[in-house]
Amino acid sequence: MQLREFTIERVLAGYRKQEFSPVELATAYLDVIEKQNERLGAFLQVDRDLVLAQATALDARKQEVNKLPLFGVPIAIKDNFLVKDWQATAASKILKGYKSPYTATCVEKLESAGALIIGKTNLDEFAMGSSTENSAYFPAKNPWDTSRVTGGSSGGSASAVAAALAVGSLGSDTGGSIRQPASLCGIVGLKPTYGRISRYGIIAFASSLDQVGPFGRSVQDVASLLEVISGYDRNDATSSRAIVPHYSDHLKGASLKNVRIGIAKDWLEGIDDEVRKSFDEAVKLMVKEGAKVVEISLPHSRYALSTYYIIAPCEASSNLARYDGIHSGFRADGVTDLDSVYFKSRGKGFGAEVKLRIMLGTYALSAGYYDAFYGKANEVRKLIQQDFLTAYESCDCIVMPTSPSTAFKFGEKSADPIKMYTSDICTLPVSLAGLPALSVPSGLDSQGLPIGLQFIGKHFEESHLLKVAHKYEQIRGEFPLPSGVDY
Amino acid sequence: MSLRDKYEAVIGLEVHAQLLTESKMFCGCKNAYGAPPNSQICPVCTGQPGTLPVINQFAVELGVRAALAIKAEIHQESIFARKNYFYPDLPKGYQISQYERPFCTQGKITIGLSDGSEKEIGITRIHFEEDAGKNIHKGDHTQVDLNRAGVPLIEIVSEPDMRTAEEAGQYLRTLRTLLRYANVTDGDMEKGNFRCDANISIRPRGQKEFGTKVELKNINSFKFVEKAVDYEIDRQIRATETGEAIVQQTRGWNSAKNVSEVMREKEDAHDYRYFAEPDLPPLVLSDKWIDEIKSELPELPDQKKARFESEYGLSGYDAGVLTASRDLANYYEGVAGASKDAKTSANWVMNELLGRLNAAGKDIVETPVSAKNLADLISKVQSGAISGKIAKTVFEEMFATSKTAESIIEAQGLKQISDPSALEPVVRKVMEANPGQVAGYKAGKVKLLGFFVGQVMKETKGQANPGLVNDIVKKLLDS
Amino acid sequence: MSESVKLDRDEVLKIARLARLELDDAEVALFQDRLGRVLEYVRELNQVKTEKGASVKHVPRDAVSIREDRAIEFVDREALLSNAPAQIEDHFLVPTVIEQS
Hints:
heterotrimer; A: alpha/beta; Amidase signature (AS) enzymes; 11-stranded mixed β-sheet; about 40% helix; B: alpha+beta; Arc Repressor Mutant, subunit A; elongated
């Protein structure tokens, strides 16, 4: 078995030709994960029994391979998703040992499509971070260079797919947490429109921004995953009823002819030279295919960082209040009165970055500060979204680098929060506007590290977005795997 | 001049009413009282990670009914907000409520006072929220039951329009009657389904500015609303008179000791950090939806009273008494409908039934005499089956035993004798026994007719039909 | 671009109290610095001319926030209680609470 070559289509073909059974494939992946995870730190939990139980059940339903779009396809799930019988720690000590009492809607949809849940992946604690260094357990490492970060917060999900430890994976994106690690790990990652996928069963970070999305090695795989996990959920009052197109079928015959590509010049400041160069080349390639470049302006996006770092912490400070040492999860030892249950459990259970953001949000919402911070940030958020809507009057799709730099070294940005937060300057405005966007690898820098190109679409027009990205992927040509992935 | 004349109290009430839904506000768990601990819980109402709220449609409709009942303004768009605080009975660490933009503002109700006057009390707002669970204190520890967590509530906030404990008590009673009429809440204070906090301050009469207000909690029975409010007014007057400053604080009513006690000073006041609930879009109440709710709104007390006056020809006073609660009004209508005599039915319900229920400390829903049984009794009097006097004896027995009039009359042989062939021998017997009186009558003493009727009634233990006896006596004496 | 403007110690402790977080001295010092930096940075928003009270409607217009009033039993309540750090007789257990509201 050549796991490195496996796409969704290839796995399904393998089952059809009876090259392997679900149990055989599951065992192969479990063995590789066992060998590689120490090096990569991609998974927080791999439960052989739970995986083999699923695979055995699939073995008995072999004839359904033609009916189920993800039959026996190994998918990794970020550890801030709830999957019944699996743990869900959000990479926090405060949820150590927490056993999911129910399954997230999007994972239920995966399971009904026949997917094989292979493990729970590493992340920045409660998805707060851009490097997966904030995991309370261990950092995830970049398969292209293990002295470098994967990006974050969905670093484990990105690393697992980049290193072929899973065919696809799910992550969550609040300010760039799918797109940025996809970029840094050289794979495709999509954050759909807010409301496209149910958030029920995803451990909340910032409710008005959180969105689930898939990782894959190709736009095709990402489209196949998206069409399974999308759709209205009566358990999520913010999920859209819009019908779910067959995204993967729509990719056929994709063309860039006369597609108007919006580029915001002012947004390209502060981007590393090599990233900028790769971006320019990608645009040139698309123009050659008939795309038209339109200059657009997103003047308020320069305030996205400040806006985001008020709104997200405010919502987080409230969302994380439930980890109180009483109703679920961790309680500190030796607590004898109610106050110490709260103070010590939360003081010891949360890591530094999480505490910083809770403090920030608590401060910004507290009496006398609300208008100046949360109120003001929401007003600016409206302007940021308005800029995008205006831009879409003259273009069909916006392109941007995904991350201003390629994968950085461990510890390089951890001392200064603002420096770390700047990793997300290209993804934050899109999140604040609730738009769909995906990152596709566009090349390697001089150190051999992947660079990502971000495609941003209109609300609920994932179909068009995927087509454009798919066509670009075709004209770009084959993208390499990191070395060391020869299993 | 008494101190009460020197000062004026200013009172506003905040009432929490549990809504009569089948399920909780934001999840499908049952909304029912008295289940085993933590048996009505799910991931949502226990605040499990990843869970989200979804609004209960019927809870919204009940809230709108309440708004219609107090003639308030209903807002097309309202916003749920998170009220953030830590407490063991609050599993999410925040309560979903409404804050800056509630669904209802500017209502009013009219209350009646003991001096016969009426007063209008303004209602600032009504908003939706979810209830918390229950902390149960066990000496060395506290344990938490989340069955009640997430149960739908409306909070009704009055204007500071009340000036006396009586007004506060009447406001609370009138509000409860309205909400029970509209089937919004069962209004049971003892079960905690209807809770009241009072904001109380005093000021010298004539002063415009409000004094420092004290929040009084734990008023959990109608029995001591007035007592608790009065106590707090007196306490503030005494304190002011002795030069002690009133401080802004929260006090709790201790019903065992009949005093209010400090619970929390202002310095400990919470900073709730309200913000719009991002997991829910704004609540939109279209005109069409509001009209639908309006069309299904049960008849309210004022409308019912007016109808009783016109449909049944009752006096304003009688109609008022009979519509004091929806259950009483329904009972009355049951009796009047079956007996086809509205006025007599009203007399029976008001004079016989309510008096006895009051004496027994029972509510109309606990009446031992069903509406149908009372109507049957009334019909028996009308048809002449029993006399009005015997009917009262029968009713007493019905109240004591819950038996039907028919079975009591049967068992005790109380049926009225209206058969002339049965009565004639009795009349003859009485005439034979009193020849002197017969002679006297025949000589012109016609007044002696009454004597014979009385004797016959006595002879038949009151069961004879008096009119018929009269006729027979007359006939036989004159022949 | 991130000048450090330290928050004073009492301010940090006051926020930590509201958020129910126990912080050791080193953390207090760290947060004085880091909170200060972020708060200083976000001050740039004051330059932006905005419409008072405006906000993004982040929920899609076709979302349905209302559900029918129907009771649905969650069968696995044991799974909910067993995730709590301490339980007693089917209750969540905490040290004695002094009733406050």
